[in-house]
Amino acid sequence: MIKLTDKEFSEFAAMVHSRFGINLAKKRILIEGRLSNTLREKNLSSFDQYLSLLKNDQSGSEITQLLNRITTNHTFFMRENEHFEFLLHKVLPYFEKNHPDRDLRIWSAGCSSGQEPYTIAMAMDEYFGSKKHLWDTTILATDISMSVLEKGKRAVYPADSLEMIPDKWRKKHFVDLKDGTFQISSQLRNEVVFKPFNLMDPFVFKKNFDLIFCRNVMIYFDEDTKERLVSKFHHWTAKGGFLFIGHSEVLNRTATQYHYVKPAIYQKGV
Ligand SMILES: C[S@@+](CC[C@H](N)C(=O)[O-])C[C@H]1O[C@@H](n2cnc3c(N)ncnc32)[C@H](O)[C@@H]1O
To answer: Which of 43, 83, 109, 127 is the most exposed place for a label (fewest CB within 10 A)?
Structure first.
């Protein structure tokens, strides 16, 4: 394994923190292990050479590749199902009452390969049923990693990854490709718009969001970065709108302007 010196590690950690808000302080062994292979693939003999490559890369593809190696894109359909229950039984009825314009703005921030935004889309289809065409229910799905966004757009998933999805939804929204995989129906695919976006970049959107999912993403960020991000989310949440985070994550209740609703669910005051 190629050795990572103290100086290289601190330079590395500083670069990743400033670009992505990701805190590597306790991840030295993981970095050394995971990136040794990268160095070998690139025929580099030291981390110092790799740092120069990253600094001189104008296209940004090297740094994105790096990010893919150090984060996990692990995700699955119906993950943390309490959120979808709450969406169906509380959030959507609330929006239905309070949205005379019938325009819902939903954002899956850190969507990985699409299982999260497609689960939201299936839940909305269930709730609105035959009235769905009266609503704008398009979901914005963003991630920093191009490779997961491509997977999300293709929307082809192995058969065993569909096990948690209710039968009714599976039958309605998936097409059997007869090779052990299933593809999300074109109708549902059209309801999710995938875009690259680094959550550390300034937020510029046309309108506020009614519902933001940012689940299992902030686990990588240090407390300051997380608080700054949550405050940006709050700014871009419509009054009465919701933020869903991962159940293993917590927001510092005194530092956030959102109201706590229940574990991993927060609401902006009306
Ligand atoms: C573990 S996945 C979570 C996927 C999904 N939200 C879920 O809960 O199943 C975390 C995702 O966050 C993305 N991510 C990490 N840092 C990011 C950043 N600074 N901006 C945008 N996405 C980021 C990663 O690329 C990864 O796809």
So the answer is: 43
